[in-house]
Amino acid sequence: MDTIQILLNLGYIFMLAAFTIRDILWLRFMLISAQLSLFSYGTVTGNMAVAFWNMLFLLINTYQAIRLIRERRPIDLPEELLELYDKLFATMRRREFLYLWNMGVIRTAKDVLLVKKGIKQKKLLLILSGTVSVKDSDREIARLTDGSFVAEMSFLTGEAATADVYAEGAVRYIAWEQTKLRSLDQLNPDLLIKIQNILGKDLTQKLKEGSGVPNMELSI
Fold first, then answer.
1. Which of 21, 47, 72 is the last residue of a domain?
2. With contact defined as beta carbons under 8 Å apart, do 162 and 112 qualify?
3. Which residue segment(s) compose the domain that 166 sits in?
4. Which of 28, 27, 23, 48 minimizes the C-alpha distance to 38?
5. Chain segment 159-169, per-residue pLDDT in tens
6. CA 34 to chain centre
7. DSSP class per residue in 67-86
8. Into how many domains does the chain fold?
């Protein structure tokens, strides 16, 4: 088999391999290899149409591969976020976590009602410091501290809160607009799935910790 035939067959082999790969970065690498081979084939045979189009595809896939490599490159988190990331968000890539973090707004509250029973919540909260009391008909059913989500059930189901949540003393938290988080369904569905899994894990942990409390409800 001469060089021309080798280049042509290599191009098709790499292209075939690309169809079997699920990871988008490796798929780009296979396409780059295929288009490089087909570009070389077009150049050697004088077929400028084949050479031109494969060079164009080669440039596009090379750009996309570089972008993916940069996105996947590990980044350093600020010290104040590292512990929170390790505790709650380790299933995300650090870049995804920073993207989510920057979608929120950090706020403080003191001795106020954060969530009212019977009201559909517009925000998802994560307590950064301080303590909140979860009450139903003035009966305390739970106390939440650092690293606990508030209104996660409302976010997951779209239903109204079934308990009141009070800030006891000074509380610092980050708040995300639920509509912005839901928009990730179109913008970044993989990230939204990771968020939902994290919230589901948080709810499960709360139910385990409150298994000894009669009629405990944490659907806030």
1. 72
2. no
3. 79-209
4. 48
5. 999 899 999 99
6. 32
7. HHHHHHS--PPPHHHHHHHH
8. 2
